[in-house]
Amino acid sequence: MKELVVLSGKGGTGKTSLVAAFAALAERKVLADCDVDAADLHLILSPRTLQVQEFQGRRRARIVSDLCAGCGACAEHCRFGAIALDGPGNGAIAKTYRVDPLACEGCGVCGYVCPTHAVAFGLGRDGEWYISETRHGPMVHARLDPGGENSGKLVTLVRERARELAKERDLDLLVVDGSPGIGCPVIASVAGTDLVLGLAEPTLSSQHDLERLAALTAHFRTPMVVCLNRADLNSEVASAIERWCATRGIRVVGRIPYDPVFNQALVQRKSVVEIGDGPAARAVREVWEETRAALAATR
User: Fold this and answer.
1) Based on the domain organization, do 154 and 218 belong to the same domain?
2) Three-state SS at 63
3) Do residue 81 and residue 216 come from a single domain?
4) Residue 113 falls within a domain, yes or no?
5) Which residues contact 290 (CB under 8 A, 6 or more apart)?
6) Which CATH number goes with the domain that contains 109?
């Protein structure tokens, strides 16, 4: 099975719109939305949920009120202000200490300093992940709760489940919609994949962030190709990005022109290649063919 991850150094470059188009064009594939902090591929593909599972990512402290002596050592040493004297009484003292699960970072200091061993640790809910069916095939996606953490761990879980699903259904391609930037979710998406498609805009900020993304993929020795979206908005910067890619041996698989049809497609909850065959749709099809050829050439 081959795995393609679509990434962008910054948000708003059109990454999800491109993945939705690839979903319509590719055959025998599984889709995975690994932008778990702000997942939105489902808004275009309108999936039918088949399975929902709770995601437990971060461990949290909990004070066992019956064992609490009210000494305050836990609150004194907590750097995050997560512990307060507002828990229930236990017969020996009128109030015990309580941990705010939203503020707790799970560092373990409170348990280390507690003289009565009243602090317990356990995993708490941080979000959900789903296996769904779309009009273009199966999809694995997820959503972190507000304040939820361990997005890198959740991304790894989504990729693993998508690979398992591909094996179960005898499918030979996994297309991943990754997160913007170069943080933990992106690292969790890049590690072990076959090809990264970096999407960029013809702006200086996007060029800078593309350079950071290229450094990340080089660190993991992951092949990378580049596509320019809205390329005709600034042909000078677009050409500069292409020259930069050429000096580093990075293949540019296409230019997509600015076209309001992308917005029209989003309103209809469809991809651009599903609502017409204008300049942008034709460019996206060419990008897919070039990307598929680059993916086939990977080991």
Assistant:
1) yes
2) strand
3) no
4) yes
5) 225, 251, 253, 254
6) 3.30.70.20
Cα 83 to Cα 61, 63, 100, 114, distances in angstroms: 10, 9, 6, 13
Q: Is this prediction's pTM over 0.85?
A: yes
3-class SS at 278?
A: coil
Residue with tokens 């200091």: 109
Number of structural domains (the chain) is 2
Q: How far apart are CA 86 and CA 92, in angstroms?
A: 15
What is each CA distance from 267 to 45, 77, 218, 276, in whole angstroms? 12, 51, 37, 14
What's the number of CA atoms in the CB half-sphere (13 Å) around residue 69? Answer: 8
- 1-28 burial, b if ≥16 CB within 10 A, otherwise e? ebbbbbbbbbeebbbbbbbbbbbbbbee
Write out the two tokens for 221.
Answer: 């020795």
Same domain as 38, residue 166: yes
What are the pLDDT digits (tens) for 92-109? Answer: 999 999 999 888 989 999
Rounded to an integer, what distance in angstroms lies between the CA atom of residue 100 and that of residue 147? 13
**For residue range 78-87, what is the model confidence (pLDDT) as tens digits?**
999 999 999 9
Asked if the structure places residue 52 within a domain, the reply is: no
Indicate whether 112 and 244 sit together in one domain: no
| End-to-end CA separation in angstroms for the chain | 11
Residues 146 and 284 placed together within one structural domain of the fold: yes
Task: Give the number of residues written for the chain.
Answer: 299
* 171 and 291 co-located in one domain: yes
Domain with 208, as residue range(s), is 2-46+135-296
pLDDT, tens digit (0-9, with 9 covering 90-100), for 192-204: 999 999 999 999 9
Q: Say if residue 28 is in the same domain as residue 152.
A: yes
Starting at the edge strand found earlier in the chain, the sheet holding 2-8 runs 48-63, 119-134, 137-144, 29-33, 173-180, 2-8, 195-200, 224-229, 251-256
Q: What is the mean pLDDT of the chain?
A: 94
